[in-house]
Design goal:
The complex is a heterodimer.
Chain A (H helix, E strand, L loop, with lengths): L1 E3 L2 E3 L1 E4 L6 E5 L7 H11 L4 E5 L16 H14 L5 E6 L1 H12 L4 E7 L10 H4 L4 H15 L5 H17 L2 H6 L4 H7 L6 E6 L5 H10 L3 E6 L5 H4 L1 H11 L1
Parallel strand pairs in A: 4-5, 4-6, 6-7, 7-8, 8-9
Antiparallel strand pairs in A: 1-2, 3-5
Helix pairs in contact in A: 1-11, 2-3, 5-6
Chain B lengths: L7 H20 L1 H7 L15 H15 L5 H6 L3 H5 L3 H10 L5
Helix pairs in contact in B: 1-2, 1-3, 1-6
The chains are: A alpha/beta, B mainly alpha.
């Protein structure tokens, strides 16, 4: 655990002696384990891997506010500073990809290569469920979808904890309003294009196809690939992501 | 491991006790008392550990036994479904039998 911006963050590093560093950001309502068991271990054979839980997720502390991209990026900058990592390859999955893109727009000096996995555009209809109607019924549906997409039935304790965690985030923090504040990120990318070499990885059954196309069009040095799976592709098809990332880095 | 003079059964008992302590550290003594732990306990189903708790468990195993066995490679080579069905006994056997174990 390290303390950044008055919050405790769960950090995990692999192969710290490697010279090139890959920082991996997970998505909303998941945690660093989305990378830990496969993608991170494979890349750690060559790279120094840094995983962390976003605030309010996994084992990191929950805060009342600060879930907007600027605050989340400040958390990440604090972590990089604390670990004395001036420049890193940055990987972001889903909402984590938005943090990575925000970093590329506002703090490009801290990033070498960028890897974006299944990242939505918050301002298009595809991600609207993230911003509206988060109630118990929705949570049940979310967990059911998660269960179907991953082939895994969450345990009772996990469901209860996930419910508590997500409900807390939505009812007792500013997360919902904070998400609404960042609808213009893709406009900012259009105005101020990302210059980093970027790998865009999306699923064949993605619901973020518009975002994939937009990023591919607006990031000059980008390449876009579609791998078998849906939004849960890091869990469904980690081998494909490892293969693509290894070829890119 | 540091119990080479013991036979496999004794080694297994020691490792099982150590792993039980790791699990209790992560999910709490109270939970362990309530649901119990055995070699047959499956981390996700029986101990109801979620992914981030299994990461914490894996890191503890790596810290304790990592100089003798490549535990992380072992679990990271598993399919997700295998990981989901991993039992305490499988981890005990892997630690006791080393990298020859499957």
């Amino acid at each position: 655990m390290i303390r950044i911006n008055n919050n405790n963050f769960n950090i995990l590093e692999l192969n710290e002696s490697a010279t090139e560093i890959v920082v991996m950001i997970h998505g909303l309502f998941t945690n660093l384990s989305v990378y830990y068991f496969s993608i991170a271990q494979a890349l750690a054979k060559k790279y120094h891997i840094v995983l962390y839980d976003l605030k309010g997720h996994g084992l990191s502390e929950t805060a009342h506010s600060g879930y907007d991209l600027q605050s989340m990026s400040e958390d990440l900058r604090g972590i990089l500073s604390e670990l004395r990592l001036p420049k890193v390859h940055l990987t972001g999955y889903s909402y984590g990809g938005l943090i990575a893109l925000y970093m590329a727009v506002h703090h490009p000096e801290t990033i070498d290569k960028l890897i974006i996995i299944e990242t939505p555009n918050l301002s298009d209809g595809q991600s609207r469920p993230l911003l509206e109607g988060y109630n118990k019924l929705f949570l049940d549906q979310y967990l059911e979808d998660l269960s179907v997409s991953t082939g895994i039935t969450p345990s009772r304790r996990k469901i209860s904890r996930t419910h508590r965690q997500v409900q807390f985030l939505f009812e007792h923090t500013t997360l919902k309003e904070d998400l609404s504040r960042d609808l213009d990120l893709f406009d900012k990318i259009a105005e101020n294009p990302v210059k980093n070499e970027t790998l865009l990885l999306y699923a064949t059954q993605t619901e973020c196809k518009n975002a994939a196309k937009f990023l591919y069009q607006h990031i000059k040095k980008s390449s876009l690939y579609y791998g078998k799976g849906n939004h849960s592709i890091p869990i469904q098809n980690p081998e494909w992501i490892i293969d693509k990332m290894t070829g890119f880095l | 491991m540091d119990t080479k003079k013991l036979d496999k059964t004794q080694q297994s008992e020691i490792v099982f006790k150590q792993l039980s302590i790791f699990v209790a550290d992560i999910i709490g003594d109270g939970v362990i008392e309530e649901i119990g732990i055995s070699r047959k306990s499956i981390f996700t189903k029986d101990l109801e550990m979620d992914s981030i708790e299994i990461v914490a468990f894996a890191e503890k195993v790596k810290q304790k036994y990592g100089h003798e066995i490549d535990f992380i490679s072992w679990i990271s080579n598993m399919k997700f479904q295998e990981l989901y069905n991993l039992s305490v006994g499988q981890v005990v056997d892997y630690i006791v039998n080393g990298n020859d174990s499957n």
